């Protein structure tokens, strides 16, 4: 491991850039584009400590995390990948507005990427400007950190900086850079690009790299497939148990590590409906709430297809790949049952009857437009009845439920551990962005503070669902 130093920070940062040691075919080396007036607006001290980053002043941090100064030991590069976007294969995407600075091994022994997002154009920018504006940067900062606090595997946010430059969107908006931390940025699309180009050696090397970095118990490509499928099955059930809709589950936004990545038009459900879609570009509901289990299986089928290309005799492994992908719906259902079972107080829910009990409650919630988060929170605190207009429907369900939880030791504790009080509601995110654009970061701070402890927060004001006027029905990619 080469030790390197961020020049005017006092403590050494041990960058160890394994991805940059892969062949040139995987990336383009280039530095982020410096910005006019870097200004630090958020810094995640807890995460910085986990990564073992040195103390530094706000100015140094602003320069490094806006891309205006490349720290010593970094090996900045833009990664190459492809991907299926809304089901259509795009043969080349890549980091069009992101730069991987390098990797560090944290105090927990875990290797992580440090990436700047919004850091200027790259050879993969296509029609884009390589920049981001403040809105999506704060959105990803708050939601990714909230997901982490909820216990969902996710990329994290280390820093947000203003660039002092405007970006052109529908109007002129303040430019910003997000510093993102991830177990890696390997995606299904990273495999797809080499598979579709017939670059078998690169595909083999990537497979070996992914195994060593994320799934060291795997020995063969099909073992890697099995591990990623299991992680993604668990992830989608995890999302759903919090009413989370990713919104753009393209194969380039689907990680090999099993972390959630790319918080674009994502949102949490307020009043429950299984067909909920927020993303303005998801016109056919491909990525609707209840479609997520089907889409993740589709994505993993693409991953399987890509992995198979490296085998001398793929026919031998097609049956195995098929078996692995076909096992996913049952894996997702099992994970869903465990998580939604916990949300109704069951420590060891059975597949058929208990899943039906949870689904029946969701159906009553949907019929009455009950708020997802607040209903489960109220259930955990014994006053769910008030969440329903038609209490008879709930009472009938409640009789069955009470009979079922009678022999649970502590159903309240099980429910409270599975259902948060506060989530980053869409209208609060929009309110935070509007305020920040006007220089007021108080709503950003408030959300961040409350969401550090989503299961126990005292900021009950953030529990309120949106009024009709506050409702934000659509979210935008916001690139
Ligand atoms: P995303 O929707 O964030 O997953 O991005 C999909 C693709 O579009 C990736 O290849 C991005 O790098 C690229 N992209 C998104 N926004 C921009 C932008 N402002 N400039 C250049 N490329 C972009
Ligand atoms: Mg993406």
Task: Explain this structure.
- The chain has 479 residues and is an alpha+beta fold.
- Among the domains are: 179 residues, no CATH class; 82 residues, no CATH class.
- It contains 15 helices and 14 strands.
- The strands form 5 sheets. Strands 4, 8, 9, 10, 11 and 12 form a 6-stranded antiparallel beta sheet that branches. A two-stranded antiparallel sheet has the order 1-2. A two-stranded antiparallel ribbon has the order 3-5.
- A hairpin with a 5-residue loop joins strand 8 and strand 9.
- Helix 14 runs antiparallel to helix 15.
- It is globular and about 65 Å long.
- The two termini are 36 Å apart.
- Bound molecules: adenosine monophosphate and magnesium ion (MG).
């Amino acid at each position: 491991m080469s030790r390197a130093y961020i020049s005017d920070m006092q403590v050494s940062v041990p960058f160890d850039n394994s991805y940059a040691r892969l062949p040139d075919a995987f990336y383009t080396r280039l530095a982020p584009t410096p910005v006019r007036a870097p200004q630090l607006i958020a810094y995640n001290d807890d995460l910085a400590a986990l990564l073992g980053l040195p103390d530094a002043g706000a100015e140094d941090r602003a320069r490094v995390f806006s891309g205006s100064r490349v720290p010593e030991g970094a090996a900045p590069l833009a990664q190459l990948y492809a991907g299926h976007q809304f089901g259509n294969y795009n043969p080349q995407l890549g980091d069009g507005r992101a730069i991987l600075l390098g990797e560090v091994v944290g105090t927990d022994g875990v290797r992580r990427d440090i990436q700047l997002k919004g850091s200027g154009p790259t050879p993969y920018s296509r029609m884009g400007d390589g920049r981001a504006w403040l809105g999506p940067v704060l959105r990803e900062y708050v939601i990714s950190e909230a997901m982490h606090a909820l216990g969902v595997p996710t990329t994290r946010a280390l820093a947000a900086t203003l660039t002092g430059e405007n970006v052109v969107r529908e109007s002129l908006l303040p430019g910003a850079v997000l510093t993102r931390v991830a177990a890696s940025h390997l995606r299904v699309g990273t495999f797809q690009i080499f598979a579709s180009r017939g670059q078998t050696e690169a595909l083999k090397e990537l497979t070996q790299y992914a195994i060593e970095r994320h799934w060291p118990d795997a020995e063969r490509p099909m073992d890697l497939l099995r591990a990623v499928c299991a992680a993604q099955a668990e992830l989608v059930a995890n999302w759903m148990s919090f009413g989370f809709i990713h919104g753009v589950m393209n194969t380039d936004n689907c990680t090999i590590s099993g972390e959630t990545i790319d918080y674009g038009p994502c949102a949490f459900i307020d009043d429950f409906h299984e067909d909920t879609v927020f993303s303005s570009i998801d016109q056919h509901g491909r990525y609707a709430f209840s479609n997520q289990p089907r889409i993740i299986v589709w994505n993993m089928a693409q991953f399987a297809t890509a992995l198979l290309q490296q085998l001398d005799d793929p026919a031998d492994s097609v049956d195995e790949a098929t078996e692995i992908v076909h096992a996913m719906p049952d894996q997702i259902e099992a994970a869903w049952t465990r998580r939604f079972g916990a949300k109704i107080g069951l420590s060891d829910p059975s597949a058929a009857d208990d899943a039906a009990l949870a689904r029946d409650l969701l159906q009553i919630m949907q019929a009455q437009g009950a708020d997802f988060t607040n209903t489960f929170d109220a259930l955990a605190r014994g006053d769910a009845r008030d969440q329903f207009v038609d209490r008879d429907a709930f009472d009938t369900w409640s009789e069955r439920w009470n009979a079922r939880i009678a022999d649970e030791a502590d159903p309240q504790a099980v429910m409270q551990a599975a259902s948060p009080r506060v989530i980053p509601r869409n209208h609060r995110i929009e309110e935070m962005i509007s305020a920040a654009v006007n220089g007021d970061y108080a709503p950003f701070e408030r959300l961040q503070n409350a969401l550090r402890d989503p299961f126990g927060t005292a900021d009950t004001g953030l529990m309120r669902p949106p009024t009709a006027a506050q409702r934000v029905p659509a979210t935008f990619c916001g690139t």
